[in-house]
DUF6998 domain-containing protein
Amino acid sequence: MTCLAQDCYHGSEVPQLTDPSKNHLPRWFFRFQSKRLRSEKKDLKKIFLREGLQKIMQQAIRLRIEADKAALDAGFTTNNFVGELGEKLAHAVYGGDLLPNSSKSADIKTCEGILLQVKTRKPNKGKQFGSIRSWDFDYLIAITLGDKYEVIRALKIPVSTCKELAEHRGHTNSFIIKPTRKLLSHADIEDVTTKFQSVAL
């Protein structure tokens, strides 16, 4: 006949399955609880990080919407804010007419009939000015802006010098200009930074 644990031990004390020092619960229980708590802490941390990131993204979207609206109110018409700001600065410096966006070769025609192509860059957006797909202009106005859109440098480059220093990009069939030492020290380039910095924004 099968006997109960107490019978099998014939009245002797049944062996302890718990740790008396830990509220009479087995050791594996505390190990399990410890792992569960560590897991819950990790999950909570992930939740806090996710909620924090979500708030940051929501704020960024709200600020972007406000910035886009302000740009439209100020007369900007494209998503290329940096490029269009450069054109407006150049127009303020040289006057004349702003040419339509469909014009591939130039952005401004001065009162003297000089065609200007304007390329504007921010250092954190790349090391080169925009692509040149046509040489039908007289001067390239190359503008470098800072983080707060202030003018750091502005150069007036003859088209002949552009052809001399430009790098060809076969996959886009275009040319690019980089602000290299060779470019900055070229004798035919006019530094017009002061003129651009004097324009009130």
Notes: Residues 1-20 have pLDDT under 50 and may be disordered. The first helix runs from residue 5 to 8. The chain has two domains: 30-74, 81-198.
